[in-house]
Amino acid sequence: MIDIRPAAAIVLLALCTTAWAQPATSKPAASDDLRAMYATSQDVAEGKRLAQEACARCHGANGVSATAGIPHIAGQRAAYLHLQLRAYKQGGRPQSPMSGAVGFLSEDGLLKVAAYYASLDPPQRVATKAPPPRPDPVQAGKSAAAACGGCHGPAGVTAIPGTPSLVGLDPSYFAAAMAGYKTGARKSDVMTGFAAGLSDAEFNNLGLFYATQKPVKAATKAAGDATAGKAAAAVCGGCHGETGVSTSPATPSIAGQDADYLVAATKAYKDGKRKSEPMKGPAESIDDKTLADVAAFYASQSPQAPAVRKPLALGDWVARCDRCHGVNGNSTDPVVPAIAAQRADWLETVLHAYRNGARKSSAMSAMSATLSETDVKDLAAYYARQAARPVTYVVIPAK
Question: Under CATH, which number does the domain 10-129+313-384 receive?
Fold first, then answer.
């Protein structure tokens, strides 16, 4: 329990651990022994002296950083500061500048530095207007798909032989295919012209829209023998799945696809109009009759929706972050950092570190794993705009 008091006599009750096993996690482990440590005004003054020697050059004399990539620490939760300082000192964090800066501090010194910074007024929020909300990507994709419906069907299920259905595909594969038309890696006068006017974001929105539509078989007929094609399709199953439902985002699902399109696409790999090392060998070795049978087999299979999740809006992500970091980033948990009014560039750096494993936390890694780059920037900017507030922890006497 931490008690931050405005009076000069006793300004801080800092949290201390006697067993800090995982310093980079957001909460101490259940086995950690937490105990209260009072810091007097003299302790805070000593913490200020130590901080000026070890910390001020990077974090600023008042704990408000003026350097890109360096976090504000004024008004931060005392327990959190203490635990992270210990982590740097003990090598729990790999960043050598911090390890060197706090390496000379004793345990008592770490507590006093934490007490000093926790006693300061928190930083001022960034005074910028919130950007307009991003459009819903599925709805944006639906709007863009209106231009595709004449050939591919309103919901991406084709009724025109030779034209592919667009349902059942992973959005990343769809976006890559569209980019191929735009760059000329895929040949189609119609598709190249259409793709040329779209951005990568619009490719992603289109892919997400089609991925969320009900997957049904193409409304076309196949000329080949599906029964004969089943045996011949065994060579394709390693990549496309036994029944044409791929488990790899980079490999398209072909279950329920238009048979004429499958034949044409395979022949394009065969004659070099499409480039793919995995497809080159199988395409060159298959004869026309077998290819028609394999296409008929896959066309007869039931497509499945890819395992995709609709991207969350900023408000949804904020609600998730606030569960631990407090309303608008003002944490009331002693060992969870406040992030309101924090530097946006620092928040971006930290989120990237959790995403790539440079920082270890099962909770934060799971939370950040599905963040897009846009989500990271939007969240960092949002919390930088929030007002930081000091927090008071009340000590309740034992009964």
Answer: 1.10.760.10
- Is 40 buried (19+), middle (13-18) or exposed (0-12) by CB count in 10 A? middle
CB 298 within 8 A of CB 309: no
Q: How many CA atoms lie within 13 A of 170 on its CB side?
A: 14
Alpha-helical runs (H) found in 78-225: 78-90, 96-102, 107-119, 137-145, 149-152, 171-183, 189-196, 200-211
33: Cα separation from own chain's centroid: 33
Residue 26 is predicted with a pLDDT of: 39
- DSSP label of 186: S
On whether the CB atoms of residues 134 and 313 are closer than 8 A, the answer is yes
Residue ranges of domains in the chain: 10-129+313-384, 137-300
Residue range 157-175, pLDDT digits in tens: 999 999 999 999 999 999 9
Alpha carbon distance 79, 366 (integer Å): 24
Task: Give the whole-angstrom CA distance, residue 173 versus residue 245.
Answer: 13
pLDDT 10s digits, 183-207: 998 888 899 999 999 999 999 999 9
pTM: 0.73
